Amino acid sequence: MLVAYRGGVVRRDEIYEELWPDEDPATLANRFSVTLRAVRRALDPDQRRPIGAYVTFRDGVVRLRTDEVEVDLENFLASANAVIRAEEAAPARVLSALDLWTGAPFADEPDADWARPVRASVAATARQLLLMRIDQCAAAGDWVESASRRRQLIALDPLDDAAHLGLVADLHRAGVASEADQAWRDYLSTMADLGLQAAPDPRGD
Question: What is the largest CA-CA distance in the chain?
């Protein structure tokens, strides 16, 4: 939860509600202190740093110091955003950023309100990177990797028409007709299940 707030403050009562939703908040101060101590010890097992070096608690709010703690999610977003801001990123830089992407964060908390903003941010960032890499693959004529990246786009958004159609076209260009046929059938099935009209087959007649 602290990671999801990306260095922002988390109110103590929010933590109470998340960890002990059915408990009386008036009885939770000691339990909270024990939990906070456990988090701090996990980050600094040898207790070499001051008590609030990694996790601060003041005036009823908790904050993870992302400037002091290395967080995979932050590493991905920092690397990805640097690549996206570049006018023309080298393929190696795009691939390096994509290697840091581990999928949707907090996948074990699909309904948690606190996870939604950062999950959306990661998904949007990953989508931009994937589109950049797909363009690079097209320029290089690497339809196999392009198809693989389009599958990742579909995993992010199963309703992404362009990703579905691009996948069919890429597999067709790669010479794997059976996989292209299956991708087309999957797309038609998705559209039919939703009662939506499918786009024309990108392979033509």
Answer: 70
Residue 94 in 3-state DSSP?
A: helix
What are the E-state strand segments in the chain? 9-11, 55-58, 61-64
- Pick the residue with more confidence: 166 or 51? 166
Contact between residue 80 and residue 27 where contact means Cβ atoms under 8 Å apart: no
With vertex at residue 202, the alpha carbon angle to CA 165 and CA 141, rounded to the nearest 5 degrees, is 80
**For the chain, percent of residues with pLDDT exceeding 70:** 100
- Nearest-5° angle of CA 107, CA 160, CA 123? 35
Strand partners, 9: 63
Q: Which residue has the tokens 């990694």?
A: 54
Nearest to 131 by CA among 168, 97, 100, 179: 97
Which sign does the torsion angle of CA 63, 67, 70, 76 carry? positive
d(CA 180, CA 145): 14
For the entire predicted model, the pTM comes to 0.86
Which whole-number Å values give the CA distances from 28 to 41, 80, 173, in the listed order? 20, 40, 61
